Amino acid sequence: MPAVSSRGRGRRTISEINMVPFIDVMLVLLIIFMVTAPMITPSMVDLPSVGKAAKQSDQVVQVVIKKDERLELISNGKTDSTTLANLAASVKRLVGDGANTAVVISADRTVQYENVVKVMDRLQRAGIARVGLSVQLAP
């Protein structure tokens, strides 16, 4: 219920905010933070260093899925055609012992995404760890 003052004629309500409780609460919070701040131990953040970055791939083999769902392998400027059944063996032959070789899948925009996933699945089941997708932005 608002306070009522009786100055002069009639009664008027006082529409001022009492700031004393607000200031009391702020001072109590300030004291709590000042007391607890020295007790908090700083945590250690493990930041990455330059030497921990992944090594660039030695060789890149590109698997291109054409409009008619034909597969082509591009490596060192050479282009070979292959099928989905022979894809893993063909890529393994091109990669050889190169454990740090990346395989990039590029597909025409009209190719169904299911076919891209099948190619990716075949490569990962064959034990090729670095498989990625190539994306071209529209001009």
Can you give a write-up of this model?
The chain is of the alpha/beta class. Helix content is 28%, strand content 22%. The chain has 3 helices and 7 strands, in the order E-E-H-E-E-E-H-E-H-E. It has helices at 20-36, 87-95, 113-125, and strands at 4-5, 12-13, 59-65, 71-75, 78-82, 101-107, 131-133. Strands 5-4-3-6-7 form a 5-stranded mixed sheet, covered by helices on one side. A two-stranded antiparallel sheet has the order 1-2. Strand 3 and strand 4 form a beta hairpin. The model has no long low-confidence stretch (mean pLDDT 81).
Which topology of the largest domain does CATH recognise? Nucleotidyltransferase, domain 5
Detail the poorly predicted runs. none
Strand content: 15-25%
Number of strands: 7
What overall form do the CA principal axes indicate? elongated
Helix/strand-derived category reads: alpha/beta
Can you list the strand order of the major beta sheet?
Answer: 5-4-3-6-7
Kindly provide the name of the CATH class of the largest domain.
Alpha Beta
What's the architecture of the largest domain in CATH terms? 2-Layer Sandwich
Largest pleated sheet: 5 strands, mixed
CA gyration radius, whole angstroms: 35 Å
In round numbers, the mean pLDDT is: 81
The helix count comes to: 3
Overall structural domain count: 2
SSE series: EEHEEEHEHE
Distance from first to last alpha carbon: 68 Å
Helix percent reads 25-40%
